[in-house]
Amino acid sequence: MAREISDDPPHREMDMLLSAGERISAALVAMAIHDLGHNAISLTGSQAGIVTDQAHTKAKILDIRPHRVQKALDEGKVVLVAGFQGISTITNDITTLGRGGSDTTAVALAAALGAEVCEIYTDVDGVYTTDPRIVPEARKLPRISYEEMLEMAATGAKVLMLRSVEFARRYGVALHVRSSFTDAPGTWIVQEEENMEQAIVSGVTYALEEAKVTLHRVCDKPGVAARVFTALAGANINVDMIIQNVSEGGTTDISFTVADDDVLTVTSLLCGLQEELGFERLETDDNMAKVSLVGAGMKTHPGVAAKMFEVLAENDINIEMISTSSIKISCVIEKQHTEQAVKALHQAFGLEAEQIEHEETLGR
Question: What is the pLDDT of residue 291?
Fold first, then answer.
C-alpha cells in the first residue's frame, strides 16, 4: 500500500502504518477471549512500556517498563501485547523493531517480568540441523546453546531472529521454540553447561539475501577503512564479512557483504564519498549466498574448516569469502550453488545420523 502511494515513503510514516497490524490483531484476539468467558486486555507497544531509540523501521529496545502489564496480570487478565513496536521517549513517536521484532518483544517482556521461560510458537516444531525443505533428513535439535543459536540466526536460520536470542542470553531467559499446531516439545535454547556434550557441528545454515560490495584501488592509508565503515554504520547498514587485500602501489581493494536490500543505499552513500575516500570504482554483486557450519564442538576439534572447503571443492563450488569464529565457519558462494552446498555439507558431517541425545527437559 505504501509503495502505491510513494516510491520512497518516510520511515516515520512507515512505522505508523506497519504498527497498525499488530494492534488490530491484539484487539481482535482480546475480543475472542472475552467471548470465551475470560478477562483480557490488548496493549500497544507503548502502552506496555516498550521504550526504543528513534531509529524508525530498525529501532532497538532501550528499556521495558512493564508496570501496566504486571498490574493487569495481577488482576487476573490475559494480556495481549502488540509486538514489533515501541515508542521513542525522545520524539514520542511510534517505532517498529524491524524483522523479527515480535520475537524480540516477547523475550524482552519475559526478561522484564522475570519469567522462567519464553515460549516462541511458530510454524515449525523446533530448530533443525538445516532447512528441512532442502534436506528432508534434517533432525530437530532438542537442545542448543545460546551461542550456537546466535550463530545460526546470524548466518541465516529464520526460526529465531538474532536480536531475540541476544536478549535471551543477556538476561538469562530460557527459550522454547515450539509448533503452533501440536503439543510436542520443541527446541530448548539455554546457557551452555560445562559438562554438556556437544556435537562437533550442530547445523548447516544459509542466507540468500547477501550482496558483495568491492571498493577497487582504495588509497591504502590509515583512517580510510574507518571512514568507510563509520559512514555505513551511521546509515544503519549492517556489514558482515570484510576482506582487505594486500596493498600494491599504495592502493588496495576492500570487499564486504551487506543485505541485498541495502545495496542501493550503500552505493549511493559511498559514491558520494568517492573523492574523499579516493577509490577508483565501486562494484556490487547480489548473486551471492552465505553457507555456514555452526557447532560448539568445533572449539576442540581441528580440521572442520579444511573438511568444509574440501567438500565444497569436490562439488565444484568456488568460495568467494570466508569468515570464522570459534563455533562458526561461513563461506560466501554463488547463489545458484546454495542448495547443493547445504545438502553436501549436511551429509558430509553426518547431521542426518543419530548423534548424542540431549535431555529435552530444561534443567535435567
Answer: 95
Taking only Cα atoms into account, the Rg of the chain, rounded to an integer number of angstroms, comes to 23
- CA atoms of 306 and 276, how far apart (whole Å): 40
Write out the DSSP string of 193-211.
PTT----S--EEEEEEEEE
Residue 306: closest CA among 331, 286, 271: 331
Alpha carbon dihedral 150, 156, 161, 167, in 10-degree steps, equals 20
- Taking the domains of the chain in order of start, what are their residue ranges? 10-115
Q: Does domain 10-115 have CATH number 1.10.357.10?
A: no
Q: Which of 81-90, 201-210, 270-279 has the lowest mean pLDDT?
A: 270-279
Q: First vs last Cα of the chain: how many Å apart?
A: 50
Q: State pLDDT tens for residues 253-311.
A: 999 999 888 899 999 999 988 888 888 899 999 999 999 999 888 887 888 999 999 99
C-alpha angle with apex 83: 77 to 88, nearest 5 degrees? Answer: 110
Q: Is 119 helix (H, G, I), strand (E, B) or coil?
A: strand
Q: Give the H or E element holding residue 17.
A: helix 11-18
Q: At a CB cut-off of 8 Å and minimum separation 6, what does 52 contact?
A: 59, 60, 61, 62, 86, 87, 88, 95, 97
Q: Which residue has the higher pLDDT, 253 or 197?
A: 253
pTM score of the predicted model: 0.79
SS3 category, 174: strand
C-alpha to C-alpha distance for 152 and 171, rounded to whole angstroms:
19
3-state secondary structure of 301: coil
Q: What is the average per-residue pLDDT within 303-324?
A: 93
